[in-house]
Amino acid sequence: MPHISIDYSSNLEAEIDIPLLCDRLRRAAIETGAFPVAGVRVRAFAASHTSIADGNPDHGYIDISVRLRGGRDLPTRERATAHIFAAAEAFVAPVLARRSLALSLEMRDIDPVLSPKSGSIRDHLGKTDPQNTKRLT
Hints:
Layout: E1 3-9, H1 18-31, E2 41-47, E3 60-69, H2 74-98, E4 101-110, H3 121-124
Parallel strand pairs: 1-2, 3-4
Antiparallel strand pairs: 1-3
């Protein structure tokens, strides 16, 4: 892990490249050195119905949730949180400068005893290009 979920207001889709944001956060998580590459997953969900602050429909938000399998110490989690948030903040900086946008991130642990895992991603690592962006033939 981590599993990174981005919940955002759909009124941002015209201004923010959400697939590129997902990829930027994936790369930021890997850059921390705190997570195995095979465990990193990033996904985004648009909220088509929102009511924010004073109800102005121009307000937007991006809420990033980082779920981790327990076991990392607090300093490691703090560094990873800061690095991932900085990547998100830099990515959306142009939008933050010109419109109403709330950006937040929360990292939380998952109890490993209550979170069984199974998968074959590790068996297939290295079968993509060095940037892990496309399948090699």
